């Protein structure tokens, strides 16, 4: 899943990025209000981690901007401002959670997972679609009770499609989801096609119906 960290403290940001990358998140970073505003205008994220004290602007104002542009994105405020008024205002403005600094990185990761699960997967760790079953915690996939071994990218793609069922997703959006904003610097996005081809093959060989459709000239859609 793709996460945006909005945090100006470099050492903390580096620690969070390393930890979340190890937890299989694609983690991008913005160190100021302006950088964050540009990123949320250009890209989509499953979850945004927002510090309230930012160079160039107030985090609560940015929160309002995020909610207007990304209604489906989960937002967790991470801040040293632990005043109850800030918590209440942040949650009322639309944040899903509030985590006061300092915090354990394992707790942050658990809260990110909880927010994404609640927003995308009806607050369940188990996703079932006819013959297909995913365990989000164990990161396993079964078709007709038979385990299907997927790579990290293939599993992430499958989760992304299941979280956006019946929605056409462009190849560019998939590239950004898998690689973050570095996708803009790539000569082509053929790696997306390779991952999707392998995902479809593995699911099909296990007896899964072909829910993943190619919308020629547009992108892909998980169609029920």
UniProtKB/TrEMBL annotation:
Record GO terms (molecular function): phosphorelay response regulator activity; transcription cis-regulatory region binding
UniProt cross-references to Pfam families, sorted A to Z: Response_reg (PF00072), Trans_reg_C (PF00486)
DNA-binding region, residue intervals: 124-224
Modified residues (4-aspartylphosphate): 51
GO process annotations (BP): regulation of DNA-templated transcription
Domain OmpR/PhoB-type stretches: 124-224
Transmembrane recorded as keyword: no
CDD domains: REC_OmpR_PmrA-like (cd17624), trans_reg_C (cd00383)
Database matches in InterPro entries: CheY-like_superfamily (IPR011006), OmpR/PhoB-type_DNA-bd (IPR001867), Sig_transdc_resp-reg_receiver (IPR001789), WalR-like (IPR039420), WH-like_DNA-bd_sf (IPR036388)
Residue ranges of every copy of the Response regulatory domain listed in the record: 2-116
UniProt keyword annotations, A-Z: DNA-binding, Phosphoprotein, Transcription, Transcription regulation, Two-component regulatory system
PROSITE patterns: OMPR_PHOB, RESPONSE_REGULATORY
Entry GO terms, CC: cytosol; protein-DNA complex
Name recorded for this polypeptide: DNA-binding response regulator, OmpR family, contains REC and winged-helix (WHTH) domain
Source organism per UniProt: Chitinophaga arvensicola
